[in-house]
Every structure is written in C-alpha cells, then in structure tokens.
Specification:
- The structure holds two protein chains of two kinds.
- Chain A is α/β, with parallel strands linked by helices.
- Chain A has helices spanning 26-41, 62-70, 86-99, 114-117, 133-138, 145-160, 164-178, 182-190, 201-206, 234-237, 268-279, 296-306, 314-317, 338-341, 349-361, and strands at residues 8-14, 50-52, 76-78, 105-112, 209-211, 214-215, 225-232, 245-255, 288-291, 332-333, 373-381, 387-396.
- By secondary structure, chain B is mostly beta strands.
- In chain B, 5% of the residues lie in helices and 37% in strands.
- Chain B starts with 20 loop residues before the first helix and ends with a strand.
- The chains are: A alpha/beta, B mainly beta.
- The interface between A and B is large, with 45 and 46 residues.
Chain lengths: 397, 139
C-alpha cells in the first residue's frame, strides 16, 4: 500500500472543565491547552512554527493577534474558519504544509465560554436580517438551530422510513461512553443535567420534543471548553514522548441549499471518499468513528455519507447497540461521550481529533482493544442548510 | 409617563442588502420574484447579481405563481427569540415553488400536527410597512 505518513498528531489536550465562568477566558484556555498539548508531546513553544486558528477570540486579525498572544513567530498562519469542522480542515492543511516543508510543528487551539455566555448553540432562535444575502432571505422564518437539523431528520424519515427509536441509538451509545468518562460525568453535573445515567431508547423518545422530530436527548449540550492538538513532521514525531498518530488521509467539502437539492445527503459524501481513497482504507475497516454529534440525525446522515452503510439504511444499521465500544459489527462511536454527553462549546471538531488520538494511543476511557484506524469527521455550520465537512483518517503507529 | 411595553415583532430583512433588494422591493407589490439565466436557463434563488451556472450569464427577473410544496419541515416547540417564543408551536419549512426556487418560510393557518411533506401550499403575504413577508398556507 502506498500509504503516506507525512504528519502525525503528537500532542493533545482537552481542557477539563465545561463550566469556567469567571475563571478563565477563551484565549487563556487556548494558551493553557497549547502548553499542556506541547508538554504531552515533549515539545515547547519554541518548536511551534505553524499556527492554525478558527478565529475564536482573536478578532479581525486573529492570525496575527494569536501569534502575539502565544509569543510565537510562526512561518505558517492559517485562519480557516468553517465552524465546528475548522479543526479537521486545519489538520488536513497542516499535513499539506508539513509535507511541503513549510512548517514542522503545527499548533491547533480552541477555547469557548459558550455555556457561560449562554450562547444560543442548541435551543436558541436566529437573529434579524443581515447584509449577507443568504441570511437576509432566511432570517424571517424563525428557524431555530435545532429546527434546521430536524428538517433533515424529517425528510430522512419521509424518504427512508427512519424512526425516532433508530435515531435514539446515537444518543444512548454516546451516553454509554460518557458515563465511563469522569470529565463527561462532571460536565453533565456542572451543566445541571437531570438524572445522569445510562439512557435507554425509551428515555430518549420520551424526552420532550424541541423541534419535531428531535427530542431533548437528541440535542448536544452547550458547554464551555477548549483544547489543543499538535501535529508534527515524521522527523519531529519520532522524538516525541508519545507514539505518533498518523494522518493518513483528508477530505474537505462544502454543501449549501440548492433549488431541488437533497438535504439528507451532507458534504461528507464529497469529503469522505477523498479522505478514504488517500488513506487507502474503507469505512468498514474503522475501529473508531469520531463523528460530529451536534444532534442524533447529524451522526446518522454522516455515517451513511462516509460509507458505513448505504444512504437511507443508517436507521436499521445503527440498531442493536453496535456503535458501543464493547460491541462488534461497527466502529466505536464518540467514545468520549460526544457533544451529546461530554463537550460541545460550539465548535466541537478539535475533540474529534483528540479522542481519536487517545484511542489510537490506547488512552481512552472506553478503549477499543488494539485500535488501529479512526475517522474523525467534522461538520461545521448547519446540516440542513450550509455546512463545511472535514474528514480525517488517522492510523496508529 | 407610563411605561410602554415594547411588543416584539418578526425579524425583518434588510431592504437595502445588495443581492436581495430587488426581491424585497417586489414584495411591496406582493410579487415573488426569482431569477433565471437567459443563457443557461439556470434558476437562481436566493437572488444574486451573477449567474452561478455560467460565467457569461444574464439574469432575468420572473414572478412565481405562488404554488408550492413542502420539501421538509419541523414544528418548533422551543425558541428563546422574543417574537417566536410566543408563537410556539409553529412550523418552519423548506418550501419548493413550482418554478424551482426553494425558500425557508412558515406554514400558517393549519394545525402543526397536520402539516406533511408533499403538502401543496399557496403563497400569502404578511404585511409590513416597508416590505411584505412571503408565508404559505395549505392550498
């Protein structure tokens, strides 16, 4: 196989708290996470020559301001900002920059106080008209974020007979994993979840409807949070403290409303095949699937688009608990507890890379024995309208 | 002076936004305007200055009949928006006009639980001072 190993994840850190009000700012969380991730790798600030930033906290010239804040003079500055999938885009672009010799150590950071700010990620409404034409057409209808995703679920049910009980499998699998992750359990306590325990299909479909057909337990939490990922060249990776987690393939794509378009298919249908082809592997070979779980339907549509099953067959495919780390017949899904039950401060993509790396190092709380391959797929923006998809295929050393 | 409580209103589009201002101007006459390229025939919506189908396009404004179909929908049961929170449960939908444009709007004048994908709709206008808002009701 002509699998290239041009760059590897060598350092990771997930900021432990999901409720930081008054204690730390998003910028401080980014710097703290960066320092811990560099320590995890056995590197220092001085080794970093590439900064990848989605603009969280940096302002209008965030590439410049974040370099100054960290005290770095990088030779690569990348400020791709496509919402929650920004970090999968950053990983893809870092790999290319490292392969091209433009940098050797790439630093990705994230910090958010969405929970403390009570920002409307999960259940809020949308604002008034805008000087962006698309927003200026959409804003009068009162579409909540959840309703945007709910319309994908509704159409999926209409076309393929998918049921709420099938969608609930996503929620129960991620909660199953969350209950094994002390930081996720603490997060649910800090965010005042009621009745924190493993959930059943009945629990999910009997929770209240927020936007039909999506129930409360199919919606992500709104947390504070942050993290960092360090990606390095093979030469650097060989001398790091932990085994490298290789970036084997990547794909990037966009999707937006089109007259007559199909909203049950996401941009993953474009980014996924590119990433798997580059890595020379298939979805069926994945031990781990870190799939952006803003809502239950997000995961179902993305699993189909990534090729775990055919379009429309996701409902039946996820039945029977096969996405749990201790079951066979499918990849382990979101073994940290996901955005549904562990951490969703608005742009969750960095945590997909972090938990995938934990699994391929053997460090997860819901560890899959001898995990070799993982896919991390971020969906930024909104599934039911405009979004950006980043697919990253990772391999153990 | 007694305190006047402000009543929240529907969030209205900006009539001066460059690409969509001709659409919103048309709503004053209760016209649902959309564009089609005279060169490649592509229907363009939301409105734009350029054709997304060809580089030498020339867009022509047309007026839709108002006949439409529900592509997908959701019943919103929770909103924190000062206007929409008082409307719950209400129906948000992607609606396909017969001529091709797909618009995000509300289905009105029907019980939320009676709305269905494929339901035939007709355009109705909610009147405001500077422009009108295109909403839909069952045919």
């Amino acid at each position: 196989m002509s699998q290239k190993r041009d760059a590897a994840i060598v350092g990771i850190h997930e900021y432990p708290s999901r409720d930081v009000e008054g204690e730390i700012s998003p910028l401080q969380m980014k710097a703290e996470s960066a320092a811990r991730a560099l320590e995890d790798a056995g590197l220092t600030w001085a080794d970093v020559d590439g900064i990848y930033d989605a603009g969280d906290g940096g302002g209008a010239m965030n590439g410049l301001t974040i370099a100054e804040y960290f005290g770095l003079k990088p030779t690569v500055i990348n400020t791709t900002g496509v919402g929650g999938s920004s970090y999968e885009f950053h990983a893809a672009q870092a790999k290319r920059d490292i392969a091209a010799g433009k940098c050797k150590v790439a630093l990705l950071t994230y910090g958010s106080t969405a929970h403390s700010n009570a920002r409307a990620i999960g259940v809020g409404g949308r604002g008034a008209g805008s000087m962006h034409p698309a927003e200026n057409m959409d804003s009068f209808a009162g579409q909540t974020l959840i309703a945007n995703y709910a319309m994908v679920a509704k159409r999926h049910m209409f076309e393929y007979g998918t049921t709420s009980r099938q969608l609930a499998e996503i929620s129960t699998a991620t909660r199953y994993h969350a209950m094994r992750n002390p930081e996720a359990v603490q997060a649910m306590e800090d965010l005042e979840f009621l009745d924190i325990r493993e959930t059943t299909i009945d629990d999910v479909v009997n929770s209240r409807l927020i936007a039909d057909p999506l129930h409360l337990l199919e919606c992500c939490m709104i947390s504070d949070g942050g993290g960092a990922v360090v990606i390095a060249s093979p030469e650097v990776a060989r001398n790091c403290k932990k085994p490298p987690v290789w970036i084997l393939g990547s794909g990037e794509a966009t999707k937006y409303p089109e007259n007559g378009g199909d909203i049950t298919t996401s941009a993953a249908a474009q980014s996924g095949p590119i990433a798997f082809a580059e890595a020379g592997v298939t979805a069926a070979e994945m031990d781990i699937a870190m799939i952006y779980d803003s809502f239950s339907i997000t995961v179902l549509a993305l699993l189909e688009d990534l090729g775990f099953c055919k379009k429309g067959e996701g409902g039946a495919w996820v039945e029977g608990g096969r996405l749990r780390f201790d079951q066979t017949g499918g990849p382990a899904l979101n073994t940290d507890g996901g955005g549904l039950s562990s951490n969703h401060p608005g742009m969750r993509g960095i945590f997909l890379l972090i938990e995938a790396a934990r699994q391929l190092r053997g460090e997860s709380n819901s560890q899959v024995a001898n995990a070799k391959l993982a896919v991390a797929h971020g969906n930024g923006g909104m599934l039911g309208s405009r979004h950006a998809a980043g697919t990253i295929i990772l391999g153990a050393d | 002076m007694s305190e006047v409580k402000k009543v929240a209103t529907r969030p209205l589009p900006k009539a001066e936004e460059f690409d969509t201002k001709a659409f919103w101007a048309g709503t004053k006459d209760k016209e649902f305007r959309y564009q089609q390229c005279t060169h490649c025939d592509k229907v363009i919506f939301y409105p734009r200055r350029h054709c997304t189908g060809c580089t030498n396009g020339s867009l022509e404004w047309k007026v839709a009949s108002g006949n439409a179909t529900v592509y997908s929908y959701s019943v919103v049961r929770q909103s924190y928006h000062p206007f929409f929170r008082n409307l719950v449960p209400y129906v948000v939908a992607w609606i396909d006009l017969d001529e091709g444009p797909r618009i995000l709007s509300n289905v009105m004048n029907v019980a939320a639980d009676d709305v269905q994908i494929g339901m035939k709709l007709k355009l109705e206008w909610e009147e405001h001072e500077e422009l009108n808002i295109p909403l839909f009701s069952p045919l």
